[in-house]
Amino acid sequence: MVLHTDPSLMPAGREGWLAWNYGKVAADGATRCFVTYYLNQLQDFTAEQDYFVTLDPPRPVAPEAVIAEFDYTHPVIDMALRGRQSVIHGANEGTRVKLAGSYFHSKELGPDLIGSHEAAFSAGAEAAGRLIGELS
Questions:
Q1: How far apart are the first and last CA of the chain?
Q2: Coil, strand, or helix at residue 25?
Q3: CA 12 from centre of chain
């Protein structure tokens, strides 16, 4: 993941810039797909400078435009993780530290959404609710 200011990874016409922009290019004999988030729109920035986050850039971003680079991976959903879903929410019982994230499933939607944004949001809301309840 690259946080940068290089607009060359955006659609050619600025009128096509959306919060999430998907690209596909031929590189090294293969098709490379990538996504560039236009942070000014996505986060409602009012900055004069345009800011972008590109996942899996198909070529190096102009070095002078790079603000930061981070390595991320998506969670691996295997049968062992799926098996722990019956007890994972118990990790937040009786402790001051509450855990949340995409490794938790949404209690309302079930364990089929392990690893999703919805699961992470649901786990965060559940953890915050538990914490508020315990502090009240």
A1: 40
A2: strand
A3: 25
Q: One-letter amino acid identity for 63?
A: P
pLDDT above 90: residue 61: yes
Average pLDDT rounded to a whole number, residues 84-111: 82
Domain termination site, one of 34, 69, 104:
69
Q: Rounded to whole angstroms, how far apart are CA atoms 62 and 6?
A: 7
CA pair distance 114, 4, nearest whole angstrom: 30
Do 64 and 10 fall within a single domain? yes
> pLDDT at position 29, please?
86
Q: Which amino acid is at 47?
A: A
Answer yes or no: do 65 and 88 share one domain: no
Q: Determine which helix (DSSP H) or strand (DSSP E) holds 72, and give its type and residue range.
A: none
